[in-house]
Amino acid sequence: MGWGIPAEESCLKLRGLMSTAPETDAAIAHLIGWLEQGGAQVSPKMQVVSTGGGERGVFAREDIAPGELLLRLPRQRLVTVPDARATELGRLIEAKTGFQDPNLYLSVFLLQERERGDASPWKPFVDVQPPSFPTHPFSFQERDFALLKGSFVVELIKLQRKGLEEDHAYLSQQIPGFARFSFDDYLWAHLAVLTRVFGARLNGNQVICLAPFLDMMNDGIPWNCTWGWSPDGESLELKSGSAIAQGKELRITYGANSNLYLLRNYGFVHELNPNNVVMVPIEFSKEDPLMDEKRKLLGIKDLSFQHCFSLPLKPDAQRIIELFSELRILHAQAEEMALLQAAPDPLARAREPLSQRNELQVLRALGTSCAQRLALYETSVEEDTRLLRQENLSWTARNCILLRQGEKQILQVFAQAGG
Description:
Distance between the termini: 43 Å
Radius of gyration: 24 Å
Helix content: 40-55%
Number of strands: 13
Oligomer: single chain
Number of helices: 17
Structural class: alpha+beta
Order of helices and strands: HHEEEEEHHHHHHHEEEEEEHEHEHHHHHH
Strand order of the largest sheet: 1-4-10-9
Strand content: 5-15%
Largest sheet: 4 strands, antiparallel
């Protein structure tokens, strides 16, 4: 989707660009014309604005009232997963690999249509895709990763990229002609889809698609626009959720996502994100004679893979219950394992304390794990606060500092609780 701008800056940035650099680029005008030729409705009250550095957003050209219909996209102007599967390359991939990832098929669709150039009926849509994704972690330099030292997001990003490299290599081996798409091509298409794919339920089924123009909307906390299927299920619609003043950015929500999720998927974070979490690796004792039994109970097949638990910023009873259930099993001794195995549902039994000893061990282990993780960061929360006041911080540096600061704040709470 569009590249985010901090909410407090969006109006100011637009004021500075209105007379010098609003996105009047021919590609945007061509896209809107193409959409309208296909039966779409695009409100003239919206304006796509380029804010520099590859970022852009949708802003109010004039005042917008609550509940206004701003965009209607008919099905013929959406790219659905069945559409992508039905292409020649899509059918080959499904037949020869059995891959089910919907994003993969949409990515391949973009690759094919970009390759077709002027012959593609989707050229107006392909032409407005970003040529690169400089703020996504896949474009990070070592200095950027250094800012994230201590965060598990670094391992997640590396695993994510490795998986893409393996998928590309496999497709190049299995699908005739696929090797003509370089890994850089494949990565571009993957990021174009990852950062702008939509999914919403229609008649009980999840419909995943690419939605031209709607994909330029940025994520906001709070948001001021909503989107969804029309009552007849034939179009995606965007409506204003509140009054939006001229010059303000129009924002939707990508969901209740943590900064960790937002950074690794979109390349931005939110300040004061109430949905923040921190990932803490689970330590398995190879000397524990009961580990095989515990692993089976937890459904863990491969101990060579790094397993983690997620700690939330805001109170989340369900997540904490699940965490404590897992830790009770991991720190159970023989008599406590016997108690679990005698229960009709061992996992349900682990949702309640097994013994005073076990409960104290769980609290100590949780506190120790958080304290150890906290020690891996090279700056304190207070130092991060001072760094964020610097006016010359780059977009990426600001995002990285905000992410690590939020993680440390959560770790501090749980480290103290376990101490």
